[in-house]
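Consortium newsletter contribution from the modelling node. Members have asked for a concrete example of what our holo predictions look like. Here is one, prepared for the flavin mononucleotide complex that several groups have been discussing at recent meetings.
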Amino acid sequence: MTKLVLFSSANKQGNTAQLIEEVAKHHSLEVIDIDALTITPYNYQNNYPTDDFYPLVEKILAADKLIFASPVYWHAPTATIKALIDRITELTDVKRLKPKARSLAHKPAFVLATSASDELCPIFNGFFEKVFNYFDIQYSAHLHANCREGFNIESNALSQFNEALNK
Ligand SMILES: Cc1cc2nc3c(=O)[nH]c(=O)nc-3n(C[C@H](O)[C@H](O)[C@H](O)COP(=O)(O)O)c2cc1C
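And here is the predicted structure:
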């Protein structure tokens, strides 16, 4: 059972990294720092140099559960996560890659997020809801830590998330 974390943050030892560590106390996770990868931005010609995108797609497709881990930066996930999702558009554009886009369907996906707010930003969450909905990815659960003062996860939220990730 592969639980693949796609991690992005400007701070590799920051709050989002800490949130992943909390979850990793209860699950075996494979974490990929996607900021360290080269993902060429999407272009309409779908003409790309060799980069890390196709190997990452294979890892994503092979994973049983997909976990996006990002801080809330200006109501949105990080630029790398956005660039990855933009590039996934290629899978829907190019005929030979379309089966890969279709293979995303029904994959259980999760979101780990940290911010300086009590609640997870609805714009940030809405981004994932819309993207997952487009690809028929199953949005299983999210876990948010409010890091305005320290590192706070709402009571029961961690156990509920762990339960969802175990299903
Ligand atoms: C560039 C930037 C933008 C931010 N935008 C928001 C925001 O829109 N809403 C919010 O609640 N917190 C915002 N924050 C606070 C971060 O979400 C919060 O500190 C988060 O836990 C940082 O995670 P990290 O340590 O992994 O970077 C922002 C922080 C930065 C650096």
